[in-house]
Amino acid sequence: MHRQTVNRFIRAISNGDDKRDQKNSKFDLKSLIEAEQKSTKFKTVFGPSNFTKEKYELYKKYQIRVHNDDPEDLNEQSFDRFLCDAPFHQEEIEGTKAQWDLLNGWVENWPKVGQSPQLQKNKRIGPTHECYYLDDKLIAISVLDFLPTGISSIYFIWDPDYANLSLGTLSGLREIQMCHELNLGYYYLGYYIDDCDKMKYKLKFGGEILDLANEVYFPIPQVGDYMKDGKLFVCGTSKDTPDTLHREFALQNTGHPKSLATSRFKNESLIRDISELVYAFNSNTHHEAETAYKLLQHKLKLSDLTPDDLPLVVPGVTPVWQILEMTENGTIHEKLKVTVFSMSHGSFGSTRLKDLTPIGRKMIIQFIRLFGIAKIENSIILI
């Protein structure tokens, strides 16, 4: 599927010495890296996600010609906020010389980079721009977040004058290969919306999509029909029936969902969508959540819910019944300490759950539902 894209790009960056029999040669992504090693025409440069005029001009050209944006809606400030500013610590934004040297030298030093424990210590963590240059002209920018678990592709900008090179697809192939060679873990292609034509290219990479309720990654072809028209899907088996599904699934909130091979679905030949059984308004789930919240409200002295609060039933969020269970077994208790910064009073400090107001306690419980208790205990909460 990707052979033509890779071969076309290799021809574009070669110095006129690409003598391979491309029709009969075995397809291998390593040939792409080898071609980059030899090329004097093409290079990429990794660096911090900072603003430059050169980057902005390419972004503006791309948005106008590819996304049909109105030129008057584009400005340097919006580009800076969108793709340059990042919620990372300053040292992670700036990086170190060793990190940038490793990234900018990985093609030349391949394959020894991925096999060296010493080089592995210099893994990049933080927001990154990889700038693509052909004949010293900026033709693309890959906006990436380097994470402890892999690389997240945030956005890709390419010069419409080079549309024939399929740079978006090519960047995905290069980044997958880089993850492999540098032993970086997973490659995250970002959001996938089934009815968005501009995201269809992501299907070319196969890959997986997360079932939020089960916390399991499923191969996209296996659940593709469930996602049509933007529908929520929740995977289940023949054992999941209206009689057994009286509540939302418990969540771990560890930030590490399971693969299909390590989940309860690994030996199941028939997987079906049970989202309506779990989340329909006339299901038992909503009654269960309301009952659980009333008990939780009594135990922890929480305020009443308001329209602005997190709904009692939300796919992918820790269910209220599980929060109640955590309260009953002592995981959540009145002596639970949280670090709070009051925006209105300017006060900062550690406080116990029972010392907060009923509204404050309710807010903390909602944060625990969203992020898990471990993250709340190790965070500063702004209220």
From TrEMBL:
Domain of life of the organism encoding this protein: Eukaryota
One CC-aspect GO term: cytoplasm
Pfam families: ATE_C
Protein name, entry field: N-end rule aminoacyl transferase C-terminal domain-containing protein
Source organism (scientific name): Cerrena zonata
Stored InterPro entries: Acyl_CoA_acyltransferase (IPR016181), N-end_Aminoacyl_Trfase (IPR030700), N-end_Aminoacyl_Trfase_C (IPR007472)
Gene Ontology MF terms: arginyl-tRNA--protein transferase activity
Domain N-end rule aminoacyl transferase C-terminal per the UniProt entry, residue ranges: 54-206
